[in-house]
Design a protein that fits this description.
315 residues, alpha/beta, TIM Barrel, globular
């Protein structure tokens, strides 16, 4: 397993991270969650990403139980704050940040997280209040470093310009060969300021694995077929997208990779990406994805990927 430095921190993270968004929040059962987590350790994955909002604490609770079997210094643990946990509990106010970090630590059964991330930007709270609260969390030893997910570039810059507060070391954007919007502003801004990308949906909700084919029924056991996990996949399973993705199959074959490995290696070729977060419902998926770590794509392969997806990739 390849490891990369996370921004200007001293954290070394596995370039493939295991996420828990649609899976361990209730999309799959407890036994599968444990099997996939253990498969991750077996494959050398040591970076685990979750959030308080995933299953309203269910994902954190599951990992809190499972990860107790492993030494705390053997893995890097990240969680997030912002999502609506109750009618009154949401956002990035000072009160919420302190309340939610304590609740997350209790569910995760740890004294600290390595990375505490703002799940989105909170327009209802002054940025100064959010940054000061995050700084207090770091100073209290409850989080080693802080990050953000899907913040507007102008807000990232404002936080960077703020004196006397903890500095961000990570950004968590959606990024894949089908969704390249971060390349325009976020990645250049972060690269210039010691912030790494930890990307979500690098497999395009599973579409880049090739499991969905134009004109064919959705596989019964797939994410798209499950109401608990398919809320965000609609735009990606349109015929034009699936036909373009089908063009990647000979590219992957020519590179000696599976479709999943090709998609992950494409993301990881970006210098500012420290890790790609994958979801998995079966241990074999974990091992297949982990094998993408350290793969170097040829120029011809990269150009073939871009040519295949030129008409459907969002930039």
């Amino acid at each position: 397993m390849e490891h990369r430095r996370l921004g200007d921190s001293d954290l070394q993270v596995s370039s493939i991270a295991l996420g828990s968004w649609l899976t361990y929040s209730g999309g799959i059962g407890r036994e599968q969650t444990e099997a996939c987590t253990r498969a991750a350790f077996d494959a050398g994955i040591t970076f685990f990403d979750t959030a308080n909002i995933y299953g309203k604490g269910a994902a954190e609770r599951a990992w809190g139980e499972i990860l107790t079997d492993y030494p705390r210094d053997s893995y890097v643990l990240a969680t997030k704050v912002w999502g609506r946990m109750s009618a009154r509990d949401r956002g990035l106010s000072r009160a919420q940040i302190h309340k939610q970090i304590d609740a997350s630590l209790e569910r995760l059964q740890v004294d600290f997280v390595d990375l505490y991330q703002c799940h989105r930007y909170d327009d209802d709270t002054p940025l100064e209040e959010t940054m000061q609260a995050l700084t207090e969390v770091v100073e209290a030893g409850k989080a080693r470093y802080i990050g953000f997910s899907e913040w507007p570039p102008e807000r990232i810059q404002q936080a960077l310009d703020m004196p006397g507060v903890a500095r961000f070391v990570s950004s968590q954007p959606q990024y894949s060969a089908l969704w390249r919007e971060p390349e325009r502003e976020v990645i250049p801004l972060c690269a210039a300021n010691g912030i790494s990308q930890v990307v979500w949906s690098p497999l395009g909700q599973g579409v880049l694995t090739g499991k969905y084919r134009a004109g064919e029924p959705i596989p019964f056991e797939s994410r798209a077929a499950k109401s608990s996990m398919n809320a965000f996949i609609g735009r990606l399973i349109k015929p034009a997208v699936l036909e373009a993705v089908a063009g990647l199959r000979p590219v992957a074959d020519g590179a000696g990779l599976t479709m999943s490995q090709l998609a992950l290696a494409w993301v990881l070729r970006q210098e500012n990406v420290a890790a790609a977060i994958v979801g998995a419902s079966r241990p074999e998926q974990v091992h297949e994805n982990a094998a993408a770590a350290g793969v170097k794509l040829s120029v011809d392969t990269v150009e073939a990927v871009e040519a295949a997806l030129a008409g459907v990739a969002v930039r």
